[in-house]
Design brief:
Length: about 1050
Amino acid sequence: MAEPRAKRPKITRGEDDYMPGSITEIELHNFMTFDKLKCIPGSRLNLVIGPNGSGKSSLVCAIALGLGGEPQLLGRATSVGAYVKRGETSAHIKITLRGNTREENIIIMRKIDARNKSEWLYNGKVVPKKEVTEIIQRFNIQVNNLTQFLPQDRVCEFAKLTPVQLLEETEKAVGDPQLPIQHRELIEISKKVKRIEQAVEKNGETLNQMKALNAEQEKDVERVRQRDELLAKAETMKKKLPWLKYDMKKSEYMEAKEKEKDSKKKLDDAARILNDLQEPIEKKRKEKAIWESRNKQVGKLINGNASKRRELLEKEDRLGVQVQGKYKQMEDSRREEESRQQEILRGKEDLAAAERELENLPPSALPTDELKRLGYQIVELGGSANAKRAQKSEKDKHLSEKKASLHACLHKLKEMESASSKLLLALKNTGAHKIFEAYNWMKEHRHEFNKEVYGPVLLEVNVSDRRHAAYLEGHVAHYVWKSFITQDSRDRDLLVRNLKSFDVPVLNYVGNGSRQEPFHISEEMSALGIYSRLDQVFDAPTAVKEVLIGQFGLDRSYIGSQQTDQKADLVSKLGILDFWTPENHYRCSVSRYGGHVSSSVEPVDRSKLFLCGLDTGEIERLKSNKIELEESVATLQESVRLLQIEQSQIEDEEAKLHKRREEIQKNITNEKRRRRDLEKRIEQRKVKLANMEKADDVDTTMAKLKEHVAKLNIERFHSVLELKVLLVEAVSFKQSFIEQHMVGIEFDAQIREMEVNIKQHEKSALQATLQLDESKKEVEVCRQQLSAAKNHAESIAMITSELQRAFLEMPTTIEDLEAAIEETASQANSILLLNHNILKEYEDRQHKIEAMATKLEEDKAELMRCIAEVDNLKETWLPTLRNLVAQINETFSWNFQEMAVAGEVSLDEHDMDFDQFGILIKVKFRQAGQLQVLSAHHQSGGERSVSTILYLVSLQDLTNCPFRVVDEINQGMDPINERKMFQQLVRAASQPNTPQCFLLTPKLLPDLEYSEACTLLNIMTGPWIEQPAEVWSSGDCWGNVMGLVGKSQC
């Protein structure tokens, strides 16, 4: 068979045979299954071989994540932290890419940790992810393109690609880089063309409909316009009506102004006459004021004279009072002298009596012995009381500690009982509606049972880990959690009879001594992540635990980690048929006939019953501790009470002694105070007696008082003489005042006669004033009405030259104008209209027609421009794409012929529907069959794998990417197709334009043909692999490596 024609060279390889962007080295640390790994791939086909679980797919994950990929594209974990090896906190991926020259190496490192944090390094320098992404895009590395990067967990996705998706992926992976960009532009522009075509068609139809409708309504519109003209004429007439009313108000205003002018003239004449009559009256008033001023001066003199006379009278009265006081003082002096002599006599007698009392006081002696005896007794009793206080304080301290412990115990017991209530409520919410009644009945009748009764089982089980609680709840049947467990058949019968109405099961534990499986985790289990067994993760009374293990096989259900989830297929090989992981519950069963193992996987549900852990043993211990503490508290309280009584008795005796000593000291103090008081009183009486004997002589005092009285009488005589002179002067002032007052009365009479005459003229002036005010009010009212009329008229219409000319043609009176308005309105109303809004609709529609016509022309121009742009792009894109698909088809068909089957690749074109363009892969694996589109409905899994790998091989020499990764694509192929497929890969790898390729497989067929373009990368893991790996890396032969392994095992 002829060789396929060679494609044109696209990429120049370096001397080291690597293309720019190829992977030259991969280094991993704590990544997935690897502690550390260093891999140097070849420049062409790299066959990564290793048994299942050895870490081949881990290498694929490292390439994807290390070159900017997200975890979601791998189809495994969704967070980057899940790729850190179990038990480690961080990991790193280091990938070396070949630069544009052999000496240029591009080293990209990604550090990740279990908290989903990432750090990027470029040639050892920390950089943002954006910079790394730009470097990867420069080499056209697309880890999210299934034609370039096909991990194991996404192989099925490639087969599910629609023709449209396959075309998109192919455009991005091979051919001209502008192809996908042009394709996207064509899709967008074609969608825009369709939208514009629909808009042009729709708008054209709408425009024609609106034009036809306007043509039908033109006659009705003309009638509307005639009616509007008549109504407009009537409205113009109505505009003149307020101006006619304004002219009428203006004439009324001018008449009022004339009346106001006449009233003002009359008022001025009356005011002039009043002024002439007022002048003589004012003259008389001024003369009267002069006389009144003089009269006031005389009045002031009279008042001054009266004031002086009052002062002289007051002075004389004051002097008389002083004379009488002196006479009284002389009489008092005589009586005081007699009283002083009597007091001197009494003072001498009191002094003698006090001296005799002081002499008769007995001498004071202190009872020293008795005071010392009382002091000793008080000190002794004080010491006893302090000792009792110390004992009581110690007891109080111990009592406080016991009370605190009792309080803590009660608080913790209450919390535990509260947790029990929460668990009972959880049971009630899940169907056990009368569980509270059943539990309370069991507690109230606990004394009637022969042996310990447990229940509900949920309260007896204590699980410390919530994940384990979810496992246990999912494994044990729900009815068991509300069950009660007895250890005696009579107790069981009693419970069944009384709890039957509460709908709770009763189980009887007979203690048959059945032995459970011994708990042991082997190294194989640990390697798969298994770390415990379901019967080891909870605490419960023996009877409860035995029932759960016996009925539900908890000793045969194991617990694993996320690592166990990833290696679930290997767990059943250890004989474990039931195990739990954080995400799933695995159940395996072995066929009785063929021994085949079938498995079922269920997701782990969150625990609904175990809201919190409940330790029943802890509750019993707390209750026992509570009783002991209560007894201790009672004993200590009694001891404190007895010590308090003894202390009180001692303190009472001590108080009595204190009181006796205080009484003695008080008596001694009273005697001393009495003696001091007597001595002080004697001294005071001696001083007082001396002062009384030193008093002035009575005769001398009387002479002084008589001399003072004589002086006061002389002053009284002089005051009487001055009073006489003032009385004469007062009479003269009174006479002058009366004469001037009479003159003032004469002036008042003359003024009153003149005012009577002027009253008549004031009435006339007042009437003129009132008339002027009325005229002003009338003018103001007319002015306001005129202003209001003008404002109203201006609000209706402002006078313009055009409007003024129109007004000249209208009637000049209000009556004629109103009649003309009514006649014009009648003519307008005589024109009948079925649709009053027809004119507005016509004009609005006409505006829409103009706007739509403009928009239609613009859309047509834009449509022509877009069609031209589509044609230009299509002329560039479609021939290139057809040529690319033809080249792929040529290689694909040739590769299928090599495998004795048939296949073709074609471009599915859809005219202007560029989003429907696609690539169809048609294959047939039997001579009698027809070519069928590749799908899960027509081909088996192995056939789809062959078709997929051959399609990828067909892209090898067309691709512009530096490397391609395919993970376990040969799984499901029969040996014949697998051998042919391998030959195709080797042949493709030998082509000059072939990029670097990684093929991951757990096995290779024997006797395959290899070329220099093939590089084998064996992945081996195990506890003794580190030393052989170092020897192998140093270049030693396989025999030396095997010998080293033998020694390690020995």
